Amino acid sequence: MARPIRNTPSLYGKDAERFLAEISTLPSLEDRRRERLRIKNSVADLMSLISRHSDKVQ
Questions:
Q1: Phi/psi at 6 (nearest 5 deg)?
Q2: What is residue 58's predicted lDDT score, i.e. its pLDDT?
Q3: pLDDT score, position 10
Q4: Whole-number Å distance between alpha carbons of 25 and 12
């Protein structure tokens, strides 16, 4: 049987300040979408290279 999920602890003081500072520096939604697309294209290029290479090997 699974363990029960505990409540998320609250942050106070310097921990809370550090957390707020870190989340305020997150990249914009557009930047994240652009990065995801770049990664997706890189994976597609890699898969293409792999399939071309495996065709030559077989």
A1: -85, 160
A2: 60
A3: 93
A4: 20
CA geometry: angle at 30 spanning 24 and 36, to 5°?
Answer: 105
d(Cα 28, Cα 15) in Å, to the nearest integer?
23
Q: What is the pLDDT of residues 3-53, one digit of tens each?
A: 999 998 899 999 999 999 988 888 889 999 999 999 999 999 999 999 888
Q: What is the CA radius of gyration of the chain?
A: 22
pTM greater than the 0.70 cutoff: no
Asked if 19 and 11 count as a contact pair (C-beta separation under 8 A), the reply is yes
Distance of CA 30 to the CA centre of its chain: 14
Who's near 19: CB < 8 A, 6+ residues apart? Answer: 11
